Amino acid sequence: MASATTREWVHRAWKNGLAVPAFNIPYLPMMEPVVRALADTRTAGLIMVARLEWIKFAAGSIEAVRDEYARVGDRRVTRLHLDHVPVIDEDNLRVDYAADIGRAIRAGYESVMVDGSRLSLEENIACTRRVSEMARAAGIPVEAELGAVMGHEAGPLPPYEELFRSRRGFTDPDEAERFVRESGADWLSIAVGSIHGAISDSARARKKIEARLDIGHLDNINRRCGVPLVLHGGTGIARECIRDAVRHGIAKINVATAIRQPYERHAPESPARARDAVYAETVRIVREELAIEGSAEQINNGGNRP
Predict the structure, then answer these.
(1) CATH numeric code, 6-300
(2) What is the pLDDT of residue 206?
(3) Strand partners, 253
(4) Domain boundary assignment for the chain
(5) How far apart are CA 13 and CA 302, in angstroms?
(6) In whole angstroms, what is the distance from residue 43 CA to residue 20 CA?
(7) Taking the chain, what is the end-to-end CA distance rounded to the nearest angstrom?
(8) What is the spatial distance between Cα 241 and Cα 88, in angstroms, rounded to a whole number?
(9) Contacts of residue 150, Cβ cutoff 8 Å, sequence gap at least 6
């Protein structure tokens, strides 16, 4: 079961109506219970860290996450992924994205993400192409983002219904088709209605917005792009909507707020209780929200049931 690459996992999921969940690790002690939950539910998932999680939380560094993964990772059900490395971050500061991604590649990450979504289309294509060349030389896939999955920005968001009705930040299908063709991205994170959980100190404990997805818009992008699509802000959406999204091209679903908040609630009083809360929530997400328990056998077997 351990021989399939991350590229194969996500491609098989995309071709066979499955999804690979990807779990953010803003605090290193969260990793072991996530891995254990994936093993106990026999679910193929990615362990990942985003730049903001070693800048604004306590993930430590690219290398610290790699070292913890070397200690607790389970190759039967997990792979290591570098999540959002922005070109311009949530504070509108320019980031040396190529240096961070180069560090991750040298550290042994098995897939990487560059986020040029705050750039013009042409700049996003150029930056993604640069990272695609780096990743290709290392033999690993690259994820990119087009459109704006909101929630990480400073300040309050407009009401969700206003955002959804106006399609603010939604990925443009024409641009997506061109982007994939010219950037070399292997997977594309798109905006079709989901929302990131808040990360500011004042709002990070707040209940996440209950979002929904524009499946027709998603289907249009899927038909035109021809690559696996990624859903960021993947929890807090109705199970039926998630299942529909998977049928229309979503092959990777990011999970962050849903497991971070239980950890943060319990960690000050009991680290052991905090880890137990992460384990329980990961199992619940796999079984109830995503309904993908047992996917490791399918994805490692070429997407077909053994």
Answers:
(1) 3.20.20.70
(2) 59
(3) 21, 231
(4) 6-300
(5) 9
(6) 8
(7) 12
(8) 31
(9) 157, 163, 168, 169, 191, 195, 196
173 in Cβ contact with 221 (< 8 Å)? yes
* Whole-number pLDDT of residue 194: 77
User: For residues 149 and 195, is the Cβ–Cβ distance under 8 A?
Assistant: yes
| pLDDT at residue number 208 | 54
CB 78 within 8 A of CB 22: no
> Is 61 strand, coil or helix?
coil
Contact 25, 48 (CB under 8 A): yes
Report pLDDT for 130.
Answer: 98
> 92 burial class (0-12, 13-18, 19+ CB within 10 angstroms)?
exposed
DSSP state of 269: T
Q: Please work out, in degrees rounded to the nearest 5, the angle formed at the alpha carbon of residue 216 by the alpha carbons of 211 and 222.
A: 100
The beta-carbon contacts of 90-99 under 8 Å, at least 24 apart in sequence, are: 90/52, 90/152, 90/153, 90/154, 90/199, 91/154, 92/118, 95/51, 97/127, 97/131, 98/130, 98/131, 98/134
Distance between CA 50 and CA 53 in Å, rounded? 5
Note the pTM of the prediction, 2 decimals: 0.89
Q: How many CA atoms lie within 13 A of 202 on its CB side?
A: 4
Mean pLDDT by 10 residues, the chain (306 residues): 84 95 98 98 98 96 98 97 96 96 98 97 98 98 89 60 70 97 97 66 55 89 96 82 93 95 97 98 94 94 61
